[in-house]
Specification:
The protein is α+β, with helices and mostly antiparallel strands. The chain contains five helices and 18 strands.
Length: 274
């Protein structure tokens, strides 16, 4: 079990949503921050060390948001590193670059979900009888599963600092706000997917194919959209769940299903998307 961090809510008076600017309930924010620190310790994102004399220590910042609404609040807090971009040297830009899939990637999956005939991975024209479905998965704490590739130090949150000590965090995992966090996550995805038998696309490295299982997916940040037969989709979700913390947001396909809180009716032979 991870040690529960000490929090000092009395040091704070007002909290505001960093996206909407609305005032947030202090108790809810403190609880969300507490949960985040527990996750950080559980996943060993950093180790506490004495402040180095010859190293730069990044400043940190809490980002608090309400992912719900005022009636049904769902507070989320993330502790991020404030690694400010300085210059744009070519080698550094390449090292920190992380691709995002074009909208056409998602459109292609939607198209394949609707047609009865398609070109297979071997280039032959095929027909199918069993329906294909789209599965939506959210990855939780995506950056925390990626090892850091640089020596980085960050100021600890005020809530966990102990009186009389001058400790900082030496990053062991990628942290939100560091320049290579997204690139490290992209490398982690590719390594795991190739171990599962997927092949990365020659174009955007966010698209993958498993020809034997007839699975196709695209990943946008920490959101996976996968196309395939229902049994293969369920198996794929279990494979991801055994490695990462994920949330299955829904499966989309005939004849009717619930996805992201909305019921979609999909009368043959097409799908309707809100």
């Amino acid at each position: 079990m991870c040690e529960e961090p000490d929090f000092f809510a009395e040091n704070y008076t007002d909290y505001y949503d960093d996206v909407l600017g609305k005032e947030l309930d202090p108790e809810g924010v403190v609880q969300a921050r507490r949960e985040e620190v527990v996750f950080i310790r559980k996943m060993k994102v950093w180790e506490e060390v004495d402040r180095p004399r010859d190293k730069t220590v990044l400043k940190g910042k809490w980002v608090d948001t309400n992912k719900g609404d005022e009636v049904h609040p769902r507070y989320r807090s993330r502790y991020i590193g404030k690694e400010i971009k300085r210059g744009s040297k070519g080698a550094l830009v390449a090292d920190f670059f992380a691709a995002m899939p074009p909208l056409s990637s998602f459109k292609l999956l939607l198209t394949l979900a609707m047609v009865d005939r398609f070109y297979g991975a071997d280039g032959t024209f095929r027909s199918r009888t069993d329906p294909w479905y789209l599965m939506f998965i959210d990855m939780k704490r995506a950056h925390f599963v990626s090892d850091t590739t640089r020596e980085l130090y960050i100021e600890l949150p005020d809530e966990v600092k102990r009186p009389g000590e001058d400790k900082v965090g030496r990053l062991l995992r990628s942290l939100y706000g560091t320049r290579d966090a997204a690139a490290n996550w992209e490398k982690t995805i590719r390594k795991v997917m190739e171990n599962l038998g997927f092949v990365c696309a020659m174009g955007p490295p966010c698209n993958f194919l498993h020809a034997k299982r007839n699975l196709r997916y695209t990943v946008h940040g920490d959101n996976f959209v996968t196309l395939g037969l229902i049994l293969e989709l369920k198996k794929f979700a279990q494979e991801l769940k055994s490695r990462w913390m994920i949330e299955e947001r829904g499966i989309f396909g005939p004849p009717e299903l619930r996805c992201l809180g909305t019921i979609y009716e999909t009368p043959e032979p097409h799908l309707e998307v809100d």
